[in-house]
Every structure is written in C-alpha cells, then in structure tokens.
Amino acid sequence: MVAPWSSFRFQSGAIAKNRFVLAPMTTDASSPDGSVTPEELAYARRRCASGFGTAITACAYVHDDGRSWNGIGAARAEHVASLARLAREFQVAGGVAILQLYDGGRIARASLVGDDRLRAPSAIASLRPGALTPREMTVAELEHLIESFRTAARRAQDAGFDGIELHGANHYLMHQFFSPRANQRQDGWGGDLDRRMRFPLAVAEAVREGVGSTMVVGYRLTPFEAEPDGYGLDDAIVLADRLADLRIDYLHISLDDFRSQSPQREDRSYTVQSQPRGDGRSAITAIAEVVAGRCAVVACGGIRTEADAGLALAAGADLVAVGRAALVDPDWLVKVQTGDEAAIATQLPHDPRDIARERTIPPRMVDYLLGRPGWIPRQGSGS
User: Fold this and answer.
1) Domain-embedded: residue 366
2) Percentage above 90 pLDDT, the chain
3) How far is residue 86 from each of residues 48, 83, 270, 347, measured CA to CA in Å?
4) Which range of residues forms the domain containing residue 278?
5) Can you give the pLDDT at residue 264?
6) Is residue 355 part of a domain?
7) Given phi > 0 = left and psi -120 to 50 = alpha, else beta, which region is 339?
8) pLDDT of residue 197
9) Fewest beta carbons less than 10 Å away: which of 10, 31, 59, 127?
10) pLDDT tops 60 at residue 383
C-alpha cells in the first residue's frame, strides 16, 4: 500500500515530498483590489511551514465579473506582485505551491460585480437564498473567459507558483457549465453531456497550452450533485477521462468526506443532511480506475488522522487533501508525523478573537467560517 509519507512525482515533473496536500480554504480576506493581505500571508505561512508536500491556495478570480468574495486576484497584470508574495509563503517549507483559479458565474457576489454583470451558462438562478437570476453568457463572453483562465495561469507561472488548479467543483462556473441544472443552453456549449463538457475541457486545454508541459495543472471536480436533477457519477467519470487525455496532473475530488455519498449542496444548508445521491460506488475508486495512472487522484474531506489518509490511499487516491483539520489546528501535520495525534485540536475556540489570534486565521475569514453553522466544531457551542 502507498505510504502517506512517501514522495510523489507529478506528470509534469514536480516532486512532492509526501502525499499530504493543504486543501484550499476560502479566506474572504483579500484587499478590495484583489491583493493579498498580511493576515492571509500569515495564515498560509503557519500551515505550509508544517511540511505539506503540496499546498493549494484559496481560489483566485480570473475576471472581475466572477468574484464570489473578497478574495485573491489573478485577473490583471498588477496582481502578479501580490501572487509572488503568496507563492513564497506557500513554498516556505519546500512544498509544491498551487494557485487555484475560479470564476463564480451565477454565484458571484452581486455586491462585488454588480447586479447587471451577473452572468452564467443559462439565465437560471442559483439555489442559494436570495439568489438573483443571471443573464446567459454570449459565446464571445465565454470564449473571452477561456482566455482569461489561460492568462491568469501564466500570471501564476510568472509569480513563481509551481502549478495551478482549475476550480470545476462546488457550483462555480465550470461546474455550472457541466451541470444539466445550470446549463440549459441550446447552442454548442450546452445540452447533452458532450456539449456540457465543452467549456471545462476548453479551459483545461487552454491552460495546459498556456503554461506548457512542466507546470502542474490540476482540476477540482464534484463527482456527483446532491440535487435530484443533477448529474451523477457516470457523467463525472466521462469528464475525468477526457481531462486525463488533456495531460492534467491531477483530479481533486471534492466531497465533504471522501467516504460519503453527499457532496456539497448548492443551497449551502449546512445544517440539513443531504440524501445520498451516489450509487454506493466510491468516487475515488471509480475515477482512479478510469484515469488509470494518466493523472493523479486527490481525495478530499474527512482526513483527520494518518489512518484516514491510509484509507483514502487504499481506495485509489494518490494524494490526500487536508482542509478543516489543518484549519482548526495549524500544526496538524507535525503532530501526525510525530505520532502525537492525541494532541491535535479538534475545535475552534469559542471567542472569535481567540480563533483569529490562536489559530492564525484572518478575522474576516473567522466571520465567514462562523457563518457556516456546524461546519467546524467550536468550543462551548454544543457541536
């Protein structure tokens, strides 16, 4: 069986010193112009210093009309200096540093982009409370956005990142194009499975061409939708197969727990348990089987111990992404490596100021996290 502390070589040549990946976590803490703040840099530095083999940033927007929060910018040339500062912090302990890229589509924040600039594959509102109905993107707009992803990836390269990850999961724009719920276009960019795959595949192909063969390119994928009229695992397997043909380095399978059949709900009802939507198959195993070593598979969600990592690797993953565990305890990886798992903190402090100070989390990120009730246990909250 693959050992979690063994090294891993990506197809593009980068070598991760172990199989642990620091998962991307929304900070909502950048400056209004998209530049990273000292608080974000401190958050990254403390966690990356623990020795993750690979580390992925919070996602960076590639176009001003796709911003879903006050996050990292990769949309303009002036963002490169900010991205370079972030890359240095993510590489502080020699890890492979990945910049995640996204566009929010219909879940962009209207207060940031303007009501009249909210656009999506189709004029269909998100299931999120209070969601506005976007306008359908023109073909010229979506072709321009493909180029925006390519250019943003080159900026990441210029800034010193070792790779980029395309965020095609969690109901952002590439996920929306793939979803039959969100994409009901009647042209060549929507309808049947082949046409719904066209946009994410075009982005992945443009990015690989833009950065060349020696930069890591990953793709984050929700393996099936929680909603009853959404796509299932078989559709995701076809997309995974096609992405592997485009020489991506890895597929990052987005689930709240890699063992679960309940992906993230679009309505963001964190206190409501989704009905299982899978058919009993492990998404990790099924996707690993179809890509058959052409790219790596990253398991995400529910990795709290070294034993959890072992189970994910045994299921077919090549790498394991750790999000909430490292968020709650910035020294999680050190404690796992030294066999001191009993000392791992599993709850955030009760006082928001203590969360920010003790766990090195930007105050605005604290507010964001506390707006997701029950998602992370908190001292004295009963959860």
Assistant:
1) no
2) 90
3) 11, 5, 30, 27
4) 8-346
5) 86
6) no
7) left
8) 98
9) 31
10) no
Is residue 382 pLDDT above 70, yes or no? Answer: no
Partners of 297 in the β-ladder:
251
In this prediction, residues 280-307 reach a mean pLDDT of: 97
The pLDDT assigned to 115 comes to 86
The domain that holds 307 is classified in CATH as 3.20.20.70
Average pLDDT over residues 196-221: 98
pLDDT recorded at residue 275 = 55
**Local confidence band at 263 (pLDDT 50, 70, 90 cut-offs):** confident
Per-residue model confidence as pLDDT tens digits over 124-158: 999 999 999 999 999 999 999 999 999 999 999 99
Residue 353: burial class (beta carbons within 10 Å; 0-12, 13-18, 19+) = exposed
Of 154-168, 262-276, 324-338, the least confident: 262-276
Q: How many CB atoms lie within 10 A of CB 146?
A: 18
Q: Is residue 116 part of a domain?
A: yes
Dist. CA 56–CA 96, nearest whole Å:
8
- Asked whether residue 373 is domain-assigned, the answer is no
Domain count of the fold of the chain? 1
